[in-house]
Amino acid sequence: MTAASESAHRSSLLSEAVDYYHELLRDAGLASQTFEALHEGLEHNRLIFGGRPLSPYLRPHFITAGDWVRVRSTCETIWGALQKVKDAAVKDDALLDELGITELERSLVKIDPGYRQVSPTARLDSFLTDDAYSFVELNGESPAGIAFADSATEIFRELPVMKRFAERFKVRGLEGRSKMLDVLLSCWDEFSGGKAERKPVIAIVDLRDLPTIKEFELFRDYFEEQGYDALICSPEDLEFDDGGLFCHGVRVDVVYKRLLVNEYVPIMEEFPALLEAYRAGSICMVNSFRGKLVHKKAIFAVLTNERYAELFNSDELAAIGAHVPWTRKFREERTQVRTSSQSESTSLEVELVEWTRANASKLVLKPNDDYGGHGIYIGWNSTAKEWDLAIETALADGDYLVQERVKTAKETFPMMFDDIGKWGMVEQLVDLDPLLFNGVVGSAFTRLSTTELANVSSGGGMVPTFIIGE
Predict the structure, then answer these.
(1) What does the DSSP 8-state code read for residue 181?
(2) Kind and range of the H or E run holding 402
(3) Which positions ≥6 away from 97 have C-beta within 8 Å?
(4) Residue 211, Cα to own-chain centre: how many angstroms?
(5) Is the separation of the CB atoms in 89 and 292 below 8 Å?
(6) Is pTM beyond 0.85 here?
(7) Cα separation of 79 and 176, whole Å?
(8) Which end of the chain is more exposed for a tag (fewer CB within 10 A), N or C?
(9) Which of 240-254, 317-331, 388-402, 412-426 shows the lowest per-residue confidence on average (mean pLDDT)?
C-alpha cells in the first residue's frame, strides 16, 4: 500500500467511525443514557475546571493506530532535537539570548537538577489532518492534563454509546498517571545515584486556589494508591530546615513541580524554601528550572533557523522541516523565510518586520513566554489596522515571535449545552496533545475549541484520545 492510499484508508476509517458514532446518538434513549452517565462521571471524577465541566462532549477524539505510530515517531524525533538544543544552550550564552532566557532564569538554569533529561514530562501541542501533522508549541515546564485525561478516558470507556460503538470497532484508550509516577521515580533514582533506601515522599507544588487543584487531587490519590506518601503544597507551605524541605512538618523528597517559574519569581524572596532546597540538592524537582530552556516558545525559532542546523542529524532536520512551523524572534533583522511551489521548497531573504506586515494572512504573533492564549495576535483574523498595532505592540515588548500559520484540524462533536439533557452538534478546532515521559510518547489527550485558541484556560474543553481499528 502506497503512502497516499494508506492515508486515504485511514481517512475513510475515521470518517466511517465518526459517522457510526453519531448515528448511534440518534437513538434518543441511548443518547439520554450517555448524557446522564457523562454528566455524573464528570462530577464524580472531579473533571471540573474553574467551575465548568472540562469535557462537555459526548464523543472522544479518535485517531487510527497508523496515525498514532506516526505521531509517536515524529514527537520522539523532535524531542531528540530539543535535547540537543538544551545541551548546547547550557554552554552557549548567545543561544540563551536567542531563547530569551533572562538573567534570573539563567541563574536557575545553571543549577544541576541531578538528572539529565531537560524536561522529563512534556507536551507537544499539534494538529493532525489527512495530509499534515504540525506542531504549534511545546509545554516543557509544567504540562497539565495528564490525570484529567486518564479520568476522562475511564468515563468515556463506560459510556453506553461507547460500549455499543466498541461492538463494531476496536477501541483503545491511553493512560498517563502510571507513566508520570515512573518519571518521578526514575528521576529520583538518577538523582540518588541508584542508592535510595526508601520510597520517596512526593509533594505536588503549585500556587493555592487554582482550577487545576482537582487534577492535583487525582494525582495525590493515585500516588497514595500505589503506596507513596503524597501531599499538595503551595510555596508558602514549604520550609527549608536542617538540610531538608518540609511541608506541614513532613520531609519531602520529590517535588512534582506544577508551579511555573513566571509565577514563582514574584514570590521567590518571600517564600524561598523551594529554591533553597533545590539549590542545596535536597530535593529532586520534576520538572526542574532547566526545563525553561525548551519551554520558551523561541525553541521553535532555534529549530527552524538554518543557523542552528548543525546541531541536528538528517532525520531530525527532516522532521523539523515537515512538522515544525517556521518561527522567528520578532525584531528588526534580515532573515530567511520559507517559500514553496508545487515542485520544491526554497527560502527567501527578507526584512522580517516589513515582510510580517505584508503577510498577515499566514502569520501569528505570540509572546515568547506566556500561556493560556494571552497576548496572541492572529493575522488572518485581524484588520490591517489591528495587525499594524499588533506589530508595534510586539516590537515594544521585545520578546515576541512570529510564526507561520499551520493547517488546523476541525471536526463536528456532540456537545452538552446544559446539565439537564440539552446537546447539539458543534464544529470544533481539534488540538491533539501527545504527552512525553522521559522523551517517549506514552499518552495524549485532545483539546477542543470554537475559536482559534484551543486552550482550556481560554474557555476550551478537552476529550480523551482513543486509538481505533477495524
Answers:
(1) H
(2) strand 400-404
(3) none
(4) 17
(5) no
(6) yes
(7) 18
(8) N
(9) 412-426
